[in-house]
Each structure stands twice: as structure tokens, then as C-alpha cells.
Amino acid sequence: MKPSFTLSLSFFLLSFAFASCNDDDATPEPTPFVLTDHYVAGTLTPKSNTYSSVYLISFLQNNKAVFIGSGNNLTGDYRLTKDSLIVEISDPNNYRIARFGINENHELTSAYYRALTMEYGATGTLVPIAATNQLAGKTFKGEEMKMGPTSFRKDLLYRFNVAGTSYGSGVDPATINPDANSFELINNSTFKYKQGSTTELGFVVDQKLTVFRQSGLFYFGTYTQQ
Question: What is the 3-state secondary structure (H, E, C) of 200-213?
Fold first, then answer.
């Protein structure tokens, strides 16, 4: 009887060890991709000009999408397939179509944009919506361009307050008040400021802040987190 008991015990221990090994090596299920947990952030450059502006596209339930630029927000529809993402605003007075290639890793591989009859050179990144405010307490520095290729301010700073609800900008760090300009926070990584004839729209991706400012003329810049 002893040999039989020893053999049974050995088999039990071997089976337990094998099962434990399989549990340890088990690959967790990938998190399902949900488009409404992301937004598109990108830039537009008219083919007849050299200046760039910033735009965003937020995705809602029931295949609705909101285009956000320096003007009024526009609501349309989106279609997502295995290799393309198309956003269309059918209003004939504000017609827009944005068409993106998308790969199996849910990265945008190409971008096309048309408003009414005007086509734009476009860029776009599909950005996960962050759980926390990505602007709070941060400072970014870079060169601001005016109406395209003209350098306007080489060392412009954007400084956001600790709460991530307002910002100040300028070239002299001693004079920047981060509580100067209250803004609308969008998707926890984008700000939109509007006061009178001035609008600023900017987003953070990979620790870089991209901003378009409309104030009579057009200003654009990409700023690195300090």
C-alpha cells in the first residue's frame, strides 16, 4: 500500500505545481477598446496658407461626435471600421468631414480634413481621456509663430495654476500670473479660453502643449513641459 500512496501523493503534487504554473503564466485579457474613452487632437493647415490651427473631436454615445475649434462647437456623426474613422458634420452651412486611417493598435495613421470646399493639411492623434487634470501645476516653454513661418516670441511660457483651472503666459517668468485666465477644461488635457475677440485652444500630448491663439491675427506654437 505504501508505494501506491507515495505514487498518488507525487501525482497530486505534480498536478498542483503544473496548475499553479499555468495560473502564473496566464495572460490577462486585453482591455476592450472604447472610442468614447478617447478623443482626437490635431492641427489644420489650409493648403493655400502656411498658418496652423488646433482642433479636437470628442466622441459621444450613439455615434455622435463634437468638433471643437476656435469657433462654435459643431455636432455630427462618426463611423468606425477596422481601418478607418470618419467624422462628418452634415449641416450644409458648416459642412465638415474628417477622415482618418486607423490600425490594429488603435493609432491614427493618416488624416484628411475638409470644411465646405476647402481642404486642409491635417494631423491627428487619438488620445486616451486622462483620469486626472494633465495641465495642473505645469509650465511649458517654446516658440510662438505668427501667421505661419514668422517667429513672434522665441521663449514663450505657459504656466497653469495648481488646480489646473487657469493659466498665464509671457516671456518673463517673474510677471506671469497662472491665475490670470480661467478656461474650459476638456477631456482633462485640453483648455479653451475665450475673452472678447481672443480665443486660445491647446492640448497636451506626450508632455508637449500645442496651442492656437486667435486675436486679430493667428498665432501657433508647440511648447515643451519644463
Answer: EEEEEECCEEEEEE
Q: Tell me the mean pLDDT per 10 residues along the chain, length 226.
A: 44 43 57 94 91 97 97 96 96 96 96 96 97 98 95 97 98 97 98 96 97 96 97
Residue type, 97: I
Q: Are 178 and 158 in contact (CB under 8 A)?
A: no
Q: Is residue 124 part of a domain?
A: yes
Same domain, 81 and 165: no
Burial 142-164 (b: 16+ CB within 10 A, else e): bebbbeeeeeebeebbbbbbeeb
Total domains in the fold of the chain = 2
| Cα angle value 28/30/34 (rounded, 5°) | 150
- Domain extent, residue 124, equals 35-128
What pTM was estimated for this model as a whole? 0.85
CA dihedral 20, 22, 24, 29 (to 10 degrees): -140
Whether residue 163 is found in the same domain as residue 193: yes
Residue that the C-alpha cell 466622441 belongs to: 59
